[in-house]
Amino acid sequence: MFCFVNAHGYYKIGKTTNVSRRVNQLKKEGPYVICFAKQTENANNKVKNIHSLLIKYRNDKGLFEIKNINTIKQLFDLMEGRWYDQLIDGRAQKPKVSECWNEEMIRQYLIARKRQSVIDEHFKMGGSNI
């Protein structure tokens, strides 16, 4: 199971057998960043449970609009399994605290993405930095 965030701050929660491949497949929908993932048995049921608990935050595209990522993280904490660490040969391991995406890191990522989109829009409309 995984939790990704896009540049607009919407979270995608799902299941996959390969987290890195899945995040790359989603590039056509816009860039996503891996917040965290967990290797677990019965991922299908666990993801359905999380989706049903967060139903009021789900938009029409199946993404979740939640202000605090810790809400999602706490639900993942309740699920049995091993934390995914993409730095260790694609095998599931409990990540070190410094390697986890936390709320502040994600907030900074989203701010940077918004700044970049404003700059891109400025130049698209004929703006210049001269």
Structure in words:
Helices cover 38% and strands 15% of the residues. It is an alpha+beta fold and 130 residues long. The chain has one domain (2-124). A four-stranded antiparallel beta sheet has the order 2-1-3-4, sandwiched between helices. The protein is globular, with a radius of gyration of 16 Å.
Determine the structural class based on helices, strands and strand pairing. Answer: alpha+beta
> What sort of overall outline do the alpha carbons produce when their principal axes are compared?
globular
Q: Output the number of helix runs.
A: 4
- What portion of the residues fall into strands of 2 or more residues? 5-15%
Specify the helix fraction band: 25-40%
**Termini gap:** 47 Å
Strands in their spatial order, largest beta sheet: 2-1-3-4
- Rounded to the nearest angstrom, the radius of gyration is 16 Å
In short:
It contains four helices and four strands; from the N terminus they run E-E-H-E-H-H-E-H. By secondary structure, it is an alpha+beta fold.
Note the main attributes of this structure:
globular, 4 helices, 130 residues
Mind sketching the topology for me?
Elements: E1 2-6, E2 11-14, H1 19-25, E3 32-39, H2 43-53, H3 69-78, E4 82-83, H4 103-124
Antiparallel strand pairs: 1-2, 1-3, 3-4
